[in-house]
Amino acid sequence: MEVKKEQIGEIDRNPVYAFTLKNDHGVEITCINYGCIITKMITPDKQGNFENIVLGYDTLEEYMMDSTYLGAVIGRVGGRIKDAQFELDGEIYTLSKNEKDNHIHGGIKGFNRVIWDAEMLKKGDIAGVQFKYFSPDGEEGYPGNLEVKVSYSLNNENEFVIRYDAMTDKKTPLSMTNHSYFNLSGNLRRDILDHTLKLKSEKFLELDPALIPTGEMLHVGNTPFDFTHERSIKSGTVSTHPQNVLVGEGYDHPFCLSNNHNEEIVLKDSESGRTLIMETDEVGVIVYSGNSLRNEGNVRGVPMRKHLGICLETQGLPNAVNQPAFPSIIIDRGQKYNSVTKYRFGIDR
Question: In which family does this protein belong, per the annotation (predicted)?
Fold first, then answer.
């Protein structure tokens, strides 16, 4: 097991470092302390070729200009909050508006736009890095001083674990996630339309025209949202279902998970043989098929385009602060917040 650290630049005289975790089988994860961004995941295909399976850039400057949240930690709250406000204990809190009249992914300067303190970790067959950030009361409109930790760890079972921990001195919403775009073809040689996905989920959330949950949970049966058996991502991009059309031909929907820590999310690419199995504590996963990726610029020499990557964002349900029927994402003063999502890399031969 190895952990390496190198400086890749600085922001306002604060150094930015890249950390590379590598296990004994050649699997590598690279991340930086700006936004806790995962820049590379190197895994083997069925022919033994080690290639990158996430979208990312080569320079810090590109990440600073990025508007698609490539690889970043999202917080305080992932997803959209309607009208950028919510009520808590009789008080209305107004958040920053960064998507028309709504708030998305933590705001203008969310967790993805800050430099985190970082410490390398190595213990036995585990290599990792722990990030820390202090989010002051009122940041982006959220109440409470919040101390946050995010740890990334890799082991020799080809398992990569993200753990989120936090503590607040005042009631506040918190629902963190990671926004990596996966592409199991390797080095972005194909888009993700022929990837298949399997979810242990029987319900998904209906979205309104602003892509905010209406509050209705719809059954997946007999729809393009039925991933209880393997389904291609392409099936949703060519669908005429109003919800697929609404989000730009594909998926950008929260799914309610019916199982946890039981191989509840499985992504596959049959041509490369790569598989990704995800397990989580969270109640939901947002499946986003990259419908809004524009034909602008490139990602490590590959033109950016629609459906080049897929996000699988494990988190609480979006806009839960305004939907009493959704599981609460409010943490109380002194309450310990923690959440774990595990990614296991494999091969189908």
Answer: Belongs to the aldose epimerase family.
What pLDDT score was predicted for residue 295? 86
* Domains: count for the chain: 1
Q: Is 193 helix (H, G, I), strand (E, B) or coil?
A: coil
CATH number at residue 110: 2.70.98.10
Q: Which residues of the chain have pLDDT under 70?
A: none
Q: Is the separation of the CB atoms in 53 and 34 below 8 Å?
A: no
From 245, 209, 239, 213, select the one nearest 224 (Cα to Cα): 239
pLDDT digits (tens, 9 = 90+) for 41-85: 999 999 999 999 999 999 999 999 999 999 999 999 999 999 999
Please give the residue range of the domain that contains residue 225: 2-347
The residue behind tokens 């808590």 is: 88
Number of Cα atoms under 13 Å in the Cβ half of residue 248 = 12
Q: Where are the strands (E) in 208-248, listed by range?
A: 213-219, 231-232
Q: Which of 107, 94, 177, 104 is nearest to 135 (CA)?
A: 107
Q: What is the pLDDT of residue 90?
A: 97
Any idea which residues carry the catalytic annotation? 179, 313
The reported pLDDT for the residue numbered 208 is 98
Residue 245's H or E segment, with its range, is helix 242-246
Tell me if 66 sits within 8 A of 32, measured CB to CB: no
